[in-house]
Amino acid sequence: MLGDELYVIISRDVNVNHKPTPIIPENQRRMMVAALKPVDFALLGSLTDYFEPISEINPDIVVLGFDQKFQEKELEDALNERGFFPKVIRLSKADSNGEGEFYSSRRIAAEIIERKNKNQEID
Amino acid sequence: MLGDELYVIISRDVNVNHKPTPIIPENQRRMMVAALKPVDFALLGSLTDYFEPISEINPDIVVLGFDQKFQEKELEDALNERGFFPKVIRLSKADSNGEGEFYSSRRIAAEIIERKNKNQEID
């Protein structure tokens, strides 16, 4: 347990440039995350300024996913410059992923395409 | 609000015969549903007897999804025979589905295949 309240910032569709555009649109992704028991607040990121939601939340801890592109140190420095001094932590891959075969949307998509190639029905 | 506690019975993989086998295995589906705020308990259905979890829970209300294959009246009669007298309700399609384009796994799968056909990357 890293803190008392969990805020999740949801990537905006237009800001996903390092990988393919998500299939599930940003607001649906936000609602899905907001519906999860451990999550107190789920908010869409800013379209223009990564730091905007962090300024609003003023968190004690910022947690990065294992594959997020930011570097902890750079992010910490940039936050410090803006007058914020949260602890920046990166989750390990083991912390981020479930244990099953289908915890990755890439893996689910691969299975759908495999079933399609075998002419299996998909639902 | 139909009741105070929400139990969700998750279909067993081997019992899904009326449509293609789910991609997400039963235990992962159970954990996903259990993680949702409105859900108090998510349990796997019985492999052999549909009525087993209902006997254990002894619910006041049984809610069917809009596309579940049971008929309300038949289910009610079968439950009455076994000494259970819950109200049986069927959700409307509007109650069951979200409003967006991608609230259906069939629709998500179709989009994945469409992207594949266009040689787009999928993640």
TrEMBL record, chains A, B:
Keywords: ATP-binding, Nucleotide-binding, Nucleotidyltransferase, Transferase. Residues 2-108 form the Cytidyltransferase-like domain. Gene3D superfamilies: HUPs. InterPro entries: Archaeal_FAD_synthase (IPR050385), Cyt_trans-like (IPR004821), Rossmann-like_a/b/a_fold (IPR014729). GO terms for molecular function: ATP binding; nucleotidyltransferase activity. This is Cytidyltransferase-like domain-containing protein. It comes from Methanimicrococcus hongohii.
